[in-house]
Amino acid sequence: MRERQARRSLVPPALLTASIALVAGISVGGSYALWNGGAPISETEVRSGTLTATVAVGDTGSPTATSAAFDPAAFDGMLPGEARSETLTVGNTGTTSFLVAASVDAASAASAEVSWALAPGACAAPAAAAIPLGATPENIGGPLAGSAFAPYCLTVTLAPDVPADAAGTTVADFMLILDANQYRS
Fold first, then answer.
1. Exposed e or buried b for every residue in 31-53, given b needs 16+ CB within 10 A?
2. Phi and psi (nearest 5°) for 117?
3. Cys-Cys with 94: which of 36, 50, 78, 140 at CB 3.0–4.6 Å?
4. What is the Cα–Cα distance from 14 to 105, expressed in whole angstroms?
5. How far apart are CA 35 and CA 27, in angstroms?
6. What residues have CB less than 8 Å from 126, skipping those under 6 apart?
7. Each residue's pLDDT tens digit, 117-136
């Protein structure tokens, strides 16, 4: 009689178990389609456009300028408690409406001697009350439509209790920051 030799597996049991688990995981992992679904949606309108903001000092808008400088003489020789105003014009040469948000640079916002405010409309006849400006942008007025220009009135006020050595000086070092935030109608 012949003796049969027992065969020994060359694959250790732990590896065999891991292989089976991996194969089972792959075959189950790819079948999530059973839980996917779809549903029709109502009609939707998708629009695209451009948003291009410009700025100019004065009543006339610029089709291209993205920065503008006030004449330092506009704020020269201010007295305690005095307020002076200058008109600037923001343009939307794009096709998408936007809201104008304004702020001043952090150093100017921290000043206790000077304050800034901005109102929609020319300084001769502002369309609304001026909004005080600080380091955080504030929306000023309503949306500015594409291919349109709108005036804004910047008012700079010297505090009434400004130190005597600051009275009669020029308020020249400040940055007015304008943001154009897309408006969805």
1. eeeeeeeeeeeeeeeeeeeebbb
2. -145, 150
3. 50
4. 67
5. 16
6. 119, 120, 153
7. 999 999 988 888 999 999 99
